[in-house]
């Protein structure tokens, strides 16, 4: 399953950054290439401090990238996990 392959690193980084345990996790996956093997999945992880994380995991995506977007009350940051892309900071409107 794509969750077990691509998800552990992203979840580990998320738990480290937030220093919090999830209060609920919702996962939904679909099998497109092989029966009974999810190759696309969406996870929503909720924390008690009103933080929600959403992960999109896919073996099928033509764009192989890992990116974290953090939305705050005043600004938003886009943080590329791999590659030479720059960290982007946006003012919220």
Structure notes:
The protein is an alpha+beta fold and 93 residues long. It has 1 helix and 6 strands. A 3-stranded antiparallel β-sheet has the order 1-2-3, with helices on one face. A 3-stranded antiparallel β-sheet has the order 4-5-6, with no helix packed on it. The longest helix has 17 residues, at 2-18. The mean pLDDT is 89.
Describe this protein with a few key phrases.
93 residues; alpha+beta; 3-stranded antiparallel beta sheet; 18% helix; globular
Strand content: 35-45%
How many angstroms separate the termini? Answer: 38 Å
Total beta strand runs: 6
Shape: globular
Q: What is the mean pLDDT?
A: 89
Radius of gyration: 15 Å
Spatial sequence of strands, sheet with the most strands:
1-2-3
Largest sheet: 3 strands, antiparallel
Helix content class: 10-25%
Report the total helices.
1
Overall structural class, as computed from helix and strand content, comes to alpha+beta
**Can you write the helix and strand succession as a string?**
HEEEEEE
Low-confidence stretches: none
């Amino acid at each position: 399953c794509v969750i077990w392959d691509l998800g552990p690193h992203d979840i580990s980084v998320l738990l480290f950054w937030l220093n919090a345990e999830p209060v609920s996790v919702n996962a939904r996956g679909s099998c497109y290439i092989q029966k009974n093997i999810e190759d696309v999945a969406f996870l929503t992880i909720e924390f008690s401090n009103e933080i929600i994380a959403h992960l999109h995991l896919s073996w099928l995506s033509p764009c192989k990238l890992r990116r974290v977007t953090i939305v705050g009350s005043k600004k938003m940051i886009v943080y590329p996990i791999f590659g030479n892309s720059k960290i982007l900071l946006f003012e919220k409107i």
